[in-house]
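Agenda item 2: NAP complex prediction
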Amino acid sequence: MTRPEVPLAGVIGDPIAHSLSPRLHGHWLRRYGLRGHYVPLHVTHAHLADVLRVLPEMGFVGVNITIPHKEYVLSLASNVSDRAALIGAANTLTFLGNGRIQADNTDGQGFLSNIRQALPGWTAATGPALVLGSGGAAKAIVSALLNDGAPRVIVANRTRARADGLKEQFGARVDPQDWTRIPDLVADAALIVNTTSLGMTGQPPLAIDLSRLSPPTVVTDIVYKPLETDLLRAAREAGCETVDGLGMLLHQAVPGFERWFGYTPLVDDDLRQAVLAP
Ligand SMILES: NC(=O)c1ccc[n+]([C@@H]2O[C@H](COP(=O)([O-])OP(=O)(O)OC[C@H]3O[C@@H](n4cnc5c(N)ncnc54)[C@H](OP(=O)(O)O)[C@@H]3O)[C@@H](O)[C@H]2O)c1
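Presented output:
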């Protein structure tokens, strides 16, 4: 594909106004003095296929995809990465020319990179992981943890059948458990991850008994509003290492930016401040 003089990228969702992606890509474009723009694109399900056909004609080199299109978009791609196919969802599309679209899912990579940046040398092979939740984000995270060598990934979800579904999808190292067993399960986990929306501003709290939580368990939350969730605060007070969820959002954006704008951007404190600015 002939590279547009001013490459454009964006994030497609419905709704989209809340997305932090324009801020983070905009920060990188300014910081590295690159030509290009990254914009929010409000697109409904009914128009998504048409929009994806037209965007490359307008100078777009790729887009991020967010709720509610991450699954549907796979059916519109001509080339789906193994990890996107395994997870059944994509968050990063690259326009390859002649109407071809490459779909990838970078959420799991973003999740692991975030923990590794906070805790250098950390690996999922350290011990069993306890994942709370079984939604779209949980799929990407369970897949990434298994890929990184987790010996067992215990999944507790309010709707038990969805946790069972992850075992069917990802295999024997996934250990589905009832949500009510969480107080016991925290004791043996090397890593605890909240992938539910609980604890997010405006959502119900994540009300779980953490009395058996202690170091060296590492605790992370993919909710990043607030930055320190009640789960992370309780874990810090118990003496555990904690990793907040903003870094996952920042790291998942790196592969798309690299592909679209040809530069490998840094995830650092400047970026965090730019994204968090009021
Ligand atoms: N940091 C990042 O980069 C990043 C990336 C992706 C997502 N996220 C955040 O992660 C969260 C989940 O996203 P998602 O796309 O996975 O959502 P999703 O597919 O809708 O899954 C939601 C999960 O939360 C559980 N849940 C919801 N309400 C609950 C309740 N009252 N009690 C117990 N469990 C409850 C659901 O359980 P059931 O199966 O029982 O309904 C399900 O497991 C969102 O807050 C999203 O903003 C962050």
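Discussion summary: Residues 107, 133-138, 157-159, 162, 195-198, 200, 204, 222-224, 245, 248-249, 252 surround NAP (CB under 6 Å).
Owner for follow-up: CH.
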